[in-house]
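Residues and backbone
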Amino acid sequence: MSYIGNAPISAAFLTDTFSGNGSTTAFTMTVAPANTSSIIVAITGVLQDPSTYSVSGTTLTFSAAPPSGTSNISVRYLGIPASGVTTTAYRTVTNFTATAGQTSFSVPSYTVGYIDVYRNGVRLVSTDYTATTGTTVVLANACTVGDAVVTESFYVSSVLNAIPATANSVARTYMPVGSVLQVVSATTTSEFASSSSSWVTTGFSASITPTTATSKILVTYGANCRIPSTAGALIQSTVYRGGTNIAPTTGRGFTQLQAASANQIDSAQYATYLDSPASTSPLTYTVYIQNTGTAGSVKWCVDGSYGSMTLMEISA
């Protein structure tokens, strides 16, 4: 048979069998059912009305002893109560009958400030007793013999490490490795030209302050570049962190555009690099370019086209 989704899973009902002897009325079951309606009981194949038997824990008791027979009594469970589930009492009531002159009472462990005390049905105010130890209650006035003293303590619960429904509620220290902790971006349309064979700043930059010294900074930048109509003309670009060229190859950059013939070339040049600054101080990343051609000026963000830089702090 075909199914939409997963195939159904089935299992037989749990069943106990017993042998009657004509005199025994109580039998011990494998599981404690919730009530008589949670089981189907049959004797020699005849279904029994729930009024003819009772259950208490795992004990099944018939109002009349079933007849003798081998495995002639069957108990089929319609459902099994959950097991291994721990519940917590949120209210504990303890009753005492006082002796003459008694003032101190030993009570189950309680949280100070979360206990009420009653004497002969009257709730006492906080000045009528002392409850500061977590295990005893001491009355200010001695009891007479037979006084009924009742303590009612309350379980104090709290939800720890829950995420509140507010912005920035998850601390960065709890973010998994590779998470984006913050993003900074900048754009420009300012053209920059250079004829220098040295690295020269374009003046375009973005700044970020890492939250931890182990964080990485993912740097992405780019713009449209132009080299003049000179054979061998070449432009390189890189990014400086402060006064340091972060390109992995010494003296080189991240992008390079070179003319193979005497033709002007315009081309978009973009690059991405994962930097490891090992710092929690403010960091400024700036685009630099270099003209290593033979003549003319190379241009970055040519003709006021779009240039961009994005800095992402990545947890590590």
In short: The longest strand covers residues 216-227. The chain has a mean pLDDT of 87. The chain is about 0% helix and 45% strand. The two ends are 50 Å apart (CA to CA).
